[in-house]
Amino acid sequence: MIRVKISDDLDYAGKAITILDVQENYYRQGKFVDGNLKFENVEKGQYLNPSLVLHQHQGEEFLHALAQGLAEAGYLPDISRDKESELNATKHHLEDMRNLVFNGKPPANK
């Protein structure tokens, strides 16, 4: 399972991104080499330098743009999907309640 950890990087006053492939028998860290993401084996508990460091405001701006791009492409975190399906269930429930209370007719305005 690939995990991405984003943290504040105090050395550069920016954001540090560490990419890990965590498996039962091994760990691999993602590193960018010539614009490609390559994975290297690492030992459990080993200190890892970030896979990518984004300096100052550039990090915030990039991460917001990345999140927006991912959402537009349909890559939503599980939390968003859970909230979306919860909202849809609530909408259907309210619709059912309206039908029960008003027998399928909209309420009269006063």
Kindly describe this structure:
- With 110 residues, this protein is an alpha+beta fold.
- It has 2 domains: 2-75, no CATH class; 76-110.
- The chain is 38% helix and 31% strand.
- The protein contains 2 helices and 5 strands.
- It has helices spanning 56-72, 78-102; strands spanning 2-9, 14-22, 27-33, 36-42, 52-54.
- Strands 1, 2, 3, 4 and 5 form a 5-stranded antiparallel β-sheet that branches.
- The longest helix has 25 residues, at 78-102.
- The model has no long low-confidence stretch (mean pLDDT 84).
Explain briefly what this protein structure is:
This protein is of the alpha+beta class and 110 residues long. The protein is 38% helix and 31% strand. The longest helix has 25 residues, at 78-102.
- Summarize the helix and strand pattern as letters: EEEEEHH
Reported for the largest beta sheet, the result is: 5 strands, antiparallel
Task: Tell me the radius of gyration.
Answer: 23 Å
Residue-averaged pLDDT, rounded?
84
Name the overall outline.
elongated
Tell me the fraction of residues in β-strands, as a range: 25-35%
Give me the count of strands: 5
Which class do the helix and strand fractions yield?
alpha+beta
What is the overall number of helices?
2
**Total domains, how many?**
2
N-end to C-end Cα span: 57 Å
Low-confidence stretches: none
The share of residues in helices is 25-40%
Keywords:
2 helices, alpha+beta, single chain, about 110 residues, 5 strands, about 30% strand
